[in-house]
Amino acid sequence: MKEKDIKEIEDILGYTFTNKNLLIQAFTRSSEREKNNNRDSEILEFIGDTVINYVIIQMFNNNLFNADNYGLNSQYSEGELTELKSLIVENKNLAAKIDDFGLDRFLRSDNSKQIPSSFKSDLLESIVGAIAIDSHYEEKEIYEIVDYLLMPRAYIGSLKFNYYLKLKQWCKIRCTSSNKLKENVEEIKNDNNIQYKTTLRFGNYEVSAIDNSKIDSLFEASILAMKKITDNKDEITIKDFLVGLDQNNGWSYLQKIQKLGYCSNLSKEYKKNEDGTWKATYMVDGMRTLYTDTNKKNAGNICALICINSLIEPRFQMDDSILELLRKLNYKETA
To answer: Where is the RNase III domain (predicted)?
Structure first.
């Protein structure tokens, strides 16, 4: 690699390597390792992947987690945090960043005429790995290069991300393999200005949004998508999450509903009466449900189903599917 190329790469990255060979190694594919003292980028990719994940989790910790005397919590579920992390570090995003910075033209590969997207995502990881090694894992340098190359704050700090999450959840429940969510990003050049048009196709819907950055165009399209779903009265309800509910697993489904944010506080209590029967008391957001049965488990299962029904039918009507399950437990409405 020529000295002027090394200098240009360092200028783009905003980092000057002490060991220039690490920079060269980061840009050397395995097919070209013989030309570089049998050194290629693979081990640096491994290190970079780990470092990126570490920095992202640190950013989550600083922005999305809350620590108190009881431990750690977050407004986002584990699944939502995984979705956000995947959005930041997925291969197509890493490859797009390499394109944005024009770093792919320095890649040393036998496939340099048509560089695959996977090569570009590997390159970003190897660059981060090389800087981690060169800086002796200096946290400031590592944090800054990941922040600079991936711009994770644009994702973490945006409330618009919630709309993207809701859309992904809607598609997971409502879409089939034939009409699942598809994203298409188109670059629009106007004079010296570049904008991005993101088109989302999902179910029977299609929306598009244009913005100055790819991530903002995606988030804006997600907002339009959720508005279209709402306008068509096609929102997800609690019932969408009750697939698989039977007469014996009501409590686990109440916990699932709680995780999804449809209720906050859950508790249950059992008391054996003098006549040998069992009284189950279930509480959902301050609403108490009681049921007595000769079988402790039966009493609890009936309570759980009644609680679920109260969340589905707040006007105290009985949902037909819940009523059918209650009948299997020999539920007596006057008990």
So the answer is: 6-136
Closest to 132 in 3D by CA, of 44, 14, 21: 44
Over the stretch 209-246, which tens digit does the pLDDT of each residue have?
A: 999 888 889 999 999 999 999 999 999 888 888 889 99
Residues of the chain with pLDDT under 50: 335
The DSSP element (H or E) to which 10 belongs, if any, is helix 3-13
**What radius of gyration do the chain's Cα atoms show?**
27
Amino acid, single-letter form, for residue 195: Q
Q: Is the pTM of this model over 0.70?
A: no
Helix 78-89 × helix 42-63 angle, to 10°:
130
Q: How far apart are CA 128 and CA 118, in angstroms?
A: 16
Domain covering 239-328 in this structure, CATH number: 3.30.160.20
Q: How far apart are the first and last CA of the chain?
A: 83
Give 271's strand partners.
279
